[in-house]
Amino acid sequence: MSTNDPSLSNRDLLPTMPAQRTWGFYNYTALWFSMCMEITTYQLASSLIAKGMDWKQAIGTVLLGNLIVLVPMLLNAHAGAKYGIPFPVFIRAPFGVRGANLAAILRAIVACGWFGIQSWIGGTAIHAMLAVIWPAAGASNGVLWACFLGFWLLNMAVVWRGVESIRRLQAFGAPFMFVMAGALLIWVRNKAGSFGTMLSTPSKFHSTGEFLQVFFPSLTAMVGYWATLALNIPDFTRYSKSQSAQSWGQAFGLPVAMVLYTFIGIAVTSASEVLFGHAIWNPIQLIGAFHAPVVAFIALIAILIATLNVNIGANVVSPSNDFSNLYPRLISFRTGGLITGFLGLAMCPWKLLASPDAYIFGWLVGYSGLLGPVAGIMVADYFLIRKTELDVNSLYHREGVYHYTKGINLRAMIALIAGVAIALVGLAVNSLHFLYAYAWFVGFFSAGAIYVVLMRLTARLPVPNSVQETA
Q1: In the list 378, 395, 430, 451, which could disulfide-bond 415, CB 3.0-4.6 Å?
Q2: Domain count, the chain
């Protein structure tokens, strides 16, 4: 391999070496358990109860959505495990060595929003627990912001220690959170009296039509919830010992962890309606409502570990690489992580969590319309156009086969713009609002189809000179 273009590579963007391939089945299972077992997952499930579903409808919606998103997740994971390349390098194949920056930044901006949301949750958790343990401090709005910024700084400290610290954090956090989630379920069960009482809240829908009006956008939200990871999963699978380790670890970890933890969110939220007369979808508020200092302290530790786990794993690794990809010579993984942190603050996360509607129908469904088209183009290019064969050398050179027109594949840009427009047009045109309700699906399939047609009609793909596989 010739010397890489320094404007397209640095130590963090280069393919992983065999010595770096340390992640096995347990690591990927632990990754998903630790990322699923956190507050936004709980709120994703509990919001379905707050919107009127019973526990069976909510569990079914969660399971179906996660089985659907597992498909593009595993498809995009393949290239990371095969070639050892991160997401921003992988998407140079369909978008071009310069055009990839647009798709990477779309993903990075969404991750920054999630980073801000998780930091806000961690800060409000600390504040809420203080309100139970030390009411005078908990009543101060200034203390709330101090808790938020303190937790944000803790996240930045972990980022500064690098990727390997994330693997160790996930390995510890997964079993711990599994135990703590079970303890929460048992504690609320004792308060409610029985599991039957906890799950007794009936569906509020009086017809199939009423249910479907909530079900379809909720299903899109379930897919959208992991739409970010469905793109940048190569950032993790590039460290896999083998293709089977990452694929089986994910196929087991994602759906099982999501169903287990969302069941806890659904059951506990249903119990809150029995105990307090209305559904409390925020677990921090729910724990505070019981006024139990010891429980509040234990819950605080669990919430902070869970939030730190998912924030670093899901919302820092990818945007750090994405920002590094913009200017590899000056922006390292650490610097990219700092950029992520500051942009997360700027996106006002407290507004995104203001209500179940803002969270699901605004944030989750909205950004899925941006990321679905990117995923569709990635899958179509790698499997339908290139048949999983990449010239790794050209991914790091401007004169390579992925340079296209001045570093940009105009066909991918057209497909991306068209896919986003089709997915989000329902926001402006009421008669087409159903397209927005299915934003991720509409964007994924429309952009992918348009890309394949344009590539096959107008592009003559050169045969790679050296297909290089690092695994």
Answers
A1: 451
A2: 1
Q: Output the CA angle 461-378-77, nearest 5 degrees.
A: 120
pTM of the full structure:
0.78
Contacts of 374 (CB under 8 A, 6+ apart): 91, 103, 106, 107, 231, 416, 447
Per the domain annotation, does 404 fall within a domain? no
pLDDT in tens, the chain (471 residues): 456 777 777 777 889 998 999 999 999 998 888 777 777 777 777 788 878 888 889 889 989 999 999 999 999 999 999 999 998 899 999 999 999 989 888 888 888 888 888 888 888 878 877 777 777 766 777 888 888 888 888 888 877 765 555 556 555 655 666 677 777 778 778 877 777 777 777 788 888 889 998 898 888 888 888 887 888 899 899 999 999 999 999 999 999 988 888 888 778 777 777 777 777 767 777 766 766 677 667 767 777 777 777 677 667 766 777 787 677 777 777 788 888 888 888 887 777 766 666 666 667 777 888 899 999 999 999 999 999 999 999 999 888 889 998 899 999 999 999 999 999 998 888 888 889 888 899 999 999 999 999 999 886 555 444 444 444
C-alpha of 196 from chain center: 33
DSSP-derived letter for residue 85 is -
Q: Which of 344, 331, 324 is nearest to 86 (CA)?
A: 324
**From residue 383, how far is each of 79, 379, 386 by CA, in Å?**
10, 6, 6
Alpha helices in 277-424 (DSSP H): 283-289, 293-315, 317-326, 333-346, 349-352, 356-357, 365-379, 410-424
| Domain assignment present for 389 | no
Query: What is the Cα–Cα distance from 368 to 391, expressed in whole angstroms?
Result: 30
In the block, tokens 């009482």 appear at: 197
Task: Find the CATH number of the domain harbouring 106.
Answer: 1.10.4160.10
Helices 410-424, 365-379: inter-axial angle, 10-degree rounding: 150
Is there a domain that residue 408 lies in? no
Question: Please, what is the end-to-end C-alpha distance for the chain in angstroms?
Answer: 16
Is 46 in contact with 269 (CB distance < 8 Å)?
Answer: yes
**Furthest C-alpha separation in the chain:** 69
The boundaries of the domain holding residue 79 are 18-347
